[in-house]
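Good day; I would like, with your permission, to put a structural problem before you. A protein sequence and the structure tokens that stand for its backbone fold form the material at issue. I would ask you to consider whether the tokens describe a fold that such a sequence might reasonably adopt. I set the record out below, with my sincere thanks for your time.
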Amino acid sequence: MRGPWAALLLLLIIGCSDPRPQPRSDLNGLLRQAGSRRDPALGQRWLASLTQRGGRERIELIDLRNRKPVPLPGLNRADGQPIDVSVSADGERLAVVEQRQGRTELLLYRRSQAAVQRIPIEPAGVPRAVSLDAQGKRLAVQISRDGRWQVDLIRLP
């Protein structure tokens, strides 16, 4: 097939294909200014990640609408080392795996109350990664037990 038919077929194929993913240059530039980031979690208009500042990692929440960090009073403690973070769609709840005083714990942070709640793991195990559902009502947690990785689902109040 040559000539105008080939060109028409090519245009139809290109026109029917899905649009290509486009990097958000405006936001990516802003995020790079803050330095090193890892383990991103995205809620509707919120980006939670672990950010390295002053030689230590901390949890940072960015409001993508106004492109500014959101204060998280009581969450980033000097004696804690965050390992993983997840955020609900509305940005109200953050689930965190944190190492503190030789223990690895699962925490739930409520922004409106600036409150941190420890979530018990039954049977006992060591959490590694966490994923909070969009409504902030359920957690999926990767846990090490007896040398094996398992996933627990936890319903939150």
About this structure: Helices lie at 4-16, 25-33. The chain is about 15% helix and 50% strand.
